[in-house]
Amino acid sequence: MTNSFVHLLGYAKAYFHLPYGQTEDVVRAHATNEIPSIPDYSTINRRVNKLDIEVNQHMGNDIVIALYST
To answer: How would residue 39 be classed by pLDDT, with cut points 50, 70 and 90?
Structure first.
């Protein structure tokens, strides 16, 4: 699983306010035949948290989601 895929999962989790288990379910539902090894929710949790993704949700009157990785 590449870091760009983990960033995508982190973005989806943050944007849709999903728990990690539902994030896994979304990937399974939409990419079963496309992705050879779909990570489970605990792997998604560990990898997203290792990337130190910060989500800024409110700036002014608009909702903004920004992802940062160090």
So the answer is: confident
Question: What is the C-alpha to C-alpha distance for residues 45 and 9, in angstroms, rounded to an integer?
Answer: 10
- CA dist 17 → 9, 10, 26, 35 (Å): 12, 10, 13, 23
Helix (H/G/I), strand (E/B), else coil: 58 = strand
For residues 18 and 68, give the distance between their C-alpha atoms in angstroms, rounded to a whole number.
19
| Residue 60 backbone class (left: φ over 0; alpha: ψ -120 to 50; beta: rest) | left
pLDDT of residue 27: 84
pTM > 0.90: yes or no = no
Q: Two tokens at 1? A: 């699983």
DSSP code at position 59: E
